[in-house]
């Protein structure tokens, strides 16, 4: 309801948190223990909170240093308006496979591409959908991705086997994305009046420094926090070098830039929600609130298609309840691993989870990952969600693939029976 009526998420989340505390208390757990568990959960989200705090300073600092205007000019020269949606998807996909993170990708290329889209009146919702789709290609598939590594560890499958198991559905989803954004490009109208002359001689290397520092540090895997911090400091120094006073700079960082957003004032309610979500997830993990509901879910399943469908339903439900990406991966993987190991294969489970569990947190408006993506590109989640075709397509593709494999298994089994009978 908070999402639907555009109210702060913390208002909608608080009743569920209070009810969860009551459930835990009914188990006989003292309030002191509950408080300690909540603190542990908050500690796990403190890096996310600090990162989004820095994100609120990125746009104002880049704008004041002249970086945004320069990146817009370059983007309009490189990414032609006729193929803007498709190029946005492909560029985000390429960077995400190298960086292995959706947040890092959107930070590095999403901000300038979104600024360019706004400059020429491109649909921000479609561009955001293309960027998020591309960013999740690497977040899910890249061997450098932490969530990719977590899934491999949880399901007890090597990274190489995991990559092989998901490659077919990945290629299909990418092709669908290319066609989807290509068609949207074909159907849109391009306003030629917004296409301006471009000259490389007019560019300033100094204005390249903030995004260059950010991309370099992310690629070197020093840490996304340091990347944001150094980029903001660099942009702030450039701004003051151009004549902006420290007081004026502080005001822009606090209140943002009119028409562009950013600023700490526009972020504090979201940060409060993330702190509460950290405490909430700490309680869910520590006291295994969801575990009993999952234990018997797959016991009556006998076919690959049925196992796939039930696993996707279960992991979507967990993602709705949890507010992060980690808990659904660990909970689904560890709970369902024995069944899939006995009835199917671990490789099939890792494919199904890669095509669902790793994507749902990017689609749910109160998920921390979705909030980070939305905050960085500056577009509401529900606005761009219909255009995140990569996220929508994969769960459907993986169900179809499981159905086809099941039919092949059935045909092979019948052949064996017939041969034995002969």
Mind explaining what this structure looks like?
The protein has one domain. It has 19 helices and no strands. It is globular, with a radius of gyration of 23 Å.
Set out the fold topology.
Layout: H1 9-26, H2 31-65, H3 67-78, H4 84-99, H5 102-119, H6 124-141, H7 146-155, H8 159-187, H9 205-219, H10 224-241, H11 246-255, H12 268-287, H13 291-295, H14 304-321, H15 326-343, H16 346-354, H17 368-377, H18 381-384, H19 389-421
Helix pairs in contact: 1-12, 2-10, 2-11, 2-12, 2-17, 3-5, 4-5, 4-6, 4-8, 5-6, 5-17, 6-8, 7-15, 7-16, 8-16, 8-19, 9-10, 14-15, 14-19, 15-16
Shape: globular
The SSE order reads HHHHHHHHHHHHHHHHHHH
The main sheet comes to: none
Which band does the percent of strand residues land in? under 5%
Observed structural traits:
19 helices, 0% strand, single chain, 422 residues, mainly alpha
Quick recap:
The chain is mainly alpha-helical.
């Amino acid at each position: 309801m908070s999402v639907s009526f555009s109210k702060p998420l913390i208002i909608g989340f608080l009743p569920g948190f209070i009810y969860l505390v009551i459930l835990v208390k009914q188990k006989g757990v003292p309030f002191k223990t509950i408080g300690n568990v909540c603190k542990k959960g908050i500690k796990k989200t403190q890096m996310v909170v600090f990162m989004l705090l820095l994100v609120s300073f990125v746009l104002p600092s880049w704008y004041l240093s002249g970086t945004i205007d320069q990146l817009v000019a370059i983007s309009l020269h490189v990414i032609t308006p006729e193929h803007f949606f498709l190029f946005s998807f492909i560029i985000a996909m390429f960077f995400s496979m190298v960086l292995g993170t959706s947040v890092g990708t959107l930070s590095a290329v999403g901000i300038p591409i979104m600024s360019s889209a706004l400059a020429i009146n491109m649909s921000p919702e479609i561009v955001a959908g293309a960027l998020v789709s591309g960013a999740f290609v690497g977040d899910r598939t890249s061997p450098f991705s932490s969530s990719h590594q977590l899934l491999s560890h949880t399901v007890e499958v090597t990274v190489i086997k995991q990559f092989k198991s998901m490659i077919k559905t990945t290629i299909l989803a990418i092709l669908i994305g290319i066609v989807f954004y290509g068609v949207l490009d074909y159907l849109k109208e391009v306003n030629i009046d917004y296409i301006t002359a471009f000259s490389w001689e007019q560019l300033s290397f100094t204005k390249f420094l903030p995004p260059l520092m950010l991309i370099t540090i992310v690629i070197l895997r020093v840490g996304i926090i340091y990347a944001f911090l150094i980029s903001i400091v660099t942009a702030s120094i450039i701004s003051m070098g151009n004549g902006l006073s420290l007081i004026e700079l502080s005001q822009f960082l606090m209140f943002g830039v009119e028409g562009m957003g950013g600023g700490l004032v526009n972020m504090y309610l979201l940060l409060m929600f993330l702190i509460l979500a950290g405490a909430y997830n700490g309680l869910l993990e520590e006291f295994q609130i969801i575990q009993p509901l999952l234990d018997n879910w797959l016991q009556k399943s006998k076919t690959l298609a049925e196992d796939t469908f039930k696993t996707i339903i279960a992991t979507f439900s967990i993602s709705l309840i949890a507010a992060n990406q980690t808990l659904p991966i660990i909970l689904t993987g560890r709970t369902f691993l024995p069944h899939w190991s006995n009835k199917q294969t671990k490789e099939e489970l890792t494919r199904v989870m890669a095509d669902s569990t790793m994507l749902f947190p990017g689609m749910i408006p109160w998920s921390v990952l979705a909030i980070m993506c939305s905050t960085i590109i500056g577009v509401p989640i529900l606005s761009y969600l219909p255009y995140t075709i990569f996220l929508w397509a994969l769960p459907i593709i993986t169900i179809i693939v499981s159905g086809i494999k099941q039919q092949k298994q059935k045909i092979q089994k019948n052949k064996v029976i017939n041969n034995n009978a002969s």
